[in-house]
Amino acid sequence: MLNRLICRLETLLFGYRSVVLISIGAFTAVMAMFAAQLHMDAGFEKQMPIGHEYIKTFQKYRSDLFGANRITVVVRARKGSIWTPEGLARLYKVTQAVTYLPNVDRLGVQSLWTPNTYVNEITEDGFHADPIIGGTITPDQLTPAIIEKIRRSTTQGGYIGTLVSHDEDSAMITAELTERDRSGKVLDYLAFNHLLESQIRKPFEDQGYEIQIIGFAKQIGDIADAATSVLGFCAIALVLTALAVYWYSHSIRFTILPIACSLTSLVWQFGTLGLLGFGLDPLAVLVPFLVFAIGVSHGVQQVNYIVRELSLGRSSLDAARHSFSGLLVPGTLALVTAFVSFVTLLLIPIPMVRELAITASLGVGYKIITNLIMLPVVASCFSFTKTYADRALARRERRSAWLRGLARVAEPRYAPLVLALTLVIFVVAVWQSRERVIGTLEPGAPELRADARFNRDALSIAGNYDVGLDWLTVVFESNSASCDNPAVGFYEDDFASAMQTEPGVVSVQSFPAMLRTYSEGYNEGYPKMNVVPVDASNYGALAAEIGRVKGFMNSDCSMTAVHLFLADHKATTINRILGDVKRYRATHEMPGVTIRLAAGNAGVLAATNEEVAKSELPMMLNVYAAILILVFLAYRDWRAMVACCAPLTVATFVGYWFMKALHIGLTVATLPVMVLAVGIGVDYAFYIYNRLQLHLATGQNIVKAVEHAMLEVGVATIFTAITLAIGVATWSFSALKFQADMGKLLAFMFIVNLLMAMTALPALASLLERWFPRTKPARAPGLLSH
């Protein structure tokens, strides 16, 4: 049935070559128009896991708590302090500029110049709050006496270390962003980042003052700007690949063909994204080029097959037809496996990852047409001389001669040794990778290098201010009568005290801490009144006062909050703090009160990390299940399932070991690379085992079958792996750290999968043939018996 179907398809495609190629050309032209409209599209909420406990908390109370999507701008005097007329005037101008940026919540902007920054003064009449800088003061009125008063009020208000640095050479402005404006238009983060540079940094940064800017909007914008370098490095990889293919084939046409076919599918992929209304997320910008690498891999196998057929004296048309029918089964298996691998990313309920899954799946799906159909059909239109065919045959013999020695891994005396060594590597890799981290391992923006402007700014701000740039908000839920229930305040105060001493917690701001401050203020500053009030009416009155300050409670006291400011957002830090909170919640229960996790940017990161960790194993199991099913359907032999998948499993764990050694965490950016590594590894396994199965079906013993399979596809497989590894290794010089890390990881995985496919696979296949002799002859896959 399958043979007849492939035969009819071959007759149809090559019988109507002109129609096929014109249709492909027309479709490519249409998709190119839509591809030209594709743009970068970033979003804060796209990174939030749908339905996660932490995200539900964040969304339920987002209007009452500190926003997780905020920008922080610091005005720093390069010499001297910020307490000068010029320094405070500069701070005023920057505050105004930040306030009037698009999508900024103007009521949420805070600096020394905003009315929501006040000092609580204790007078004879009790507690009194005045702005740090009165509304009647303007920058041109800043006399030494007024500046000294502002400085004193800032110290009394506790803003040294929060809005003013410890060494008092800089001051901070914070602003919360809304992702949609009143008209419903979504914030363009890339354009907003350019506004930050053109309207904030460029006008106000000079030889006297430095402007430091951090926040998600700045981070994702810098990543997107740096992502333009991706095109440059992909172009370098393209040139290296082209030179290598030319060295391999000694034909300009065979050099251009696989690259042109892969680029065609890239145009289709981008065009389809445009039609679907998707953009290209900066964190997913590498995915199309990773899929492009898969296309080149299959293209080289097609070129190898056609050149081999030409060297045997066949015409271009016959060689192309044989290549189409001979590689349709293994090529489709490999691409369908890669397709399923990327589709399984849909298991992760993060919109950005799901968009990435759709992007990658489209690209891989199109490869079936461009690499398995378009390439051989175009190649059939070429003509080659007998001289080229003879030279191709001589090159093939010369290049593959050494593979006879490598094929001896299938011999009875060597196969057990190779398998034992593979088993040792597998055990060590599993052991070494057991403590790998889900999430980021570096402070600052892990996607950028340590010397990037964003990370330098983040390090400077973190070192000069007490309030960490990353915070985890813990919510205490109770009934609406909690404004008159001091027990809730005592319970929350105990929690805040317990968290204050935890490693990784820089400082704590909480509802009960505000109660303490207000209680002392209303009692003429008597230190012993720095407590949570025990009297219900007094407790309620102070709660009403605190309700005027955003971030600590909602209107009816059914929600109060504790903000844990963290030293960094490393996964190890966040996970440790979350563990501490969960242990406290489990051992210190209070009837009627529920401790909910978690808001703040660290809460969003924690939710993302947990979803990646939870989805990774099911996703990988689904990928391997798909591989096993496809291998069985193609070869109807359980030996093929074991021989193809066991080496792939070893390579996967060696990859995890490599990630741990290079301090690369498993994140939404690195997870697709591991999926891709599985897809590439399957490619190598399928192409080798396909030829192996064919020779077993002709009656050859396993050692001879391995030798012939190695001679026929070994050089192409090795060539493809090394070429692609060298190409992506150039990414190591990218300004994007995560592109550099992905280049190292991909290059490593290409080589590891190659070694497994060229050594462990034939050795294991040989042993399985001896340990479990066949009762029936092996089946030739597809049309490979011709």
From TrEMBL:
<feature type="transmembrane region" description="Helical">
    <location>
        <begin position="617"/>
        <end position="635"/>
    </location>
</feature>
<keyword id="KW-1003">Cell membrane</keyword>
<feature type="transmembrane region" description="Helical">
    <location>
        <begin position="664"/>
        <end position="689"/>
    </location>
</feature>
<feature type="transmembrane region" description="Helical">
    <location>
        <begin position="327"/>
        <end position="348"/>
    </location>
</feature>
<dbReference type="Pfam" id="PF03176">
    <property type="entry name" value="MMPL"/>
</dbReference>
<keyword id="KW-1133">Transmembrane helix</keyword>
<feature type="transmembrane region" description="Helical">
    <location>
        <begin position="12"/>
        <end position="36"/>
    </location>
</feature>
<dbReference type="InterPro" id="IPR004869">
    <property type="entry name" value="MMPL_dom"/>
</dbReference>
<protein>
    <submittedName>
        <fullName>Multidrug resistance protein MdtC</fullName>
    </submittedName>
</protein>
<feature type="transmembrane region" description="Helical">
    <location>
        <begin position="230"/>
        <end position="249"/>
    </location>
</feature>
<feature type="domain" description="SSD">
    <location>
        <begin position="263"/>
        <end position="381"/>
    </location>
</feature>
<feature type="transmembrane region" description="Helical">
    <location>
        <begin position="414"/>
        <end position="431"/>
    </location>
</feature>
<feature type="transmembrane region" description="Helical">
    <location>
        <begin position="286"/>
        <end position="307"/>
    </location>
</feature>
<feature type="transmembrane region" description="Helical">
    <location>
        <begin position="640"/>
        <end position="658"/>
    </location>
</feature>
<dbReference type="GO" id="GO:0005886">
    <property type="term" value="C:plasma membrane"/>
</dbReference>
<keyword id="KW-0472">Membrane</keyword>
<feature type="transmembrane region" description="Helical">
    <location>
        <begin position="745"/>
        <end position="768"/>
    </location>
</feature>
<dbReference type="InterPro" id="IPR050545">
    <property type="entry name" value="Mycobact_MmpL"/>
</dbReference>
<feature type="transmembrane region" description="Helical">
    <location>
        <begin position="368"/>
        <end position="389"/>
    </location>
</feature>
<feature type="transmembrane region" description="Helical">
    <location>
        <begin position="256"/>
        <end position="280"/>
    </location>
</feature>
<feature type="transmembrane region" description="Helical">
    <location>
        <begin position="710"/>
        <end position="733"/>
    </location>
</feature>
<dbReference type="InterPro" id="IPR000731">
    <property type="entry name" value="SSD"/>
</dbReference>
<feature type="domain" description="SSD">
    <location>
        <begin position="650"/>
        <end position="767"/>
    </location>
</feature>
<keyword id="KW-0812">Transmembrane</keyword>
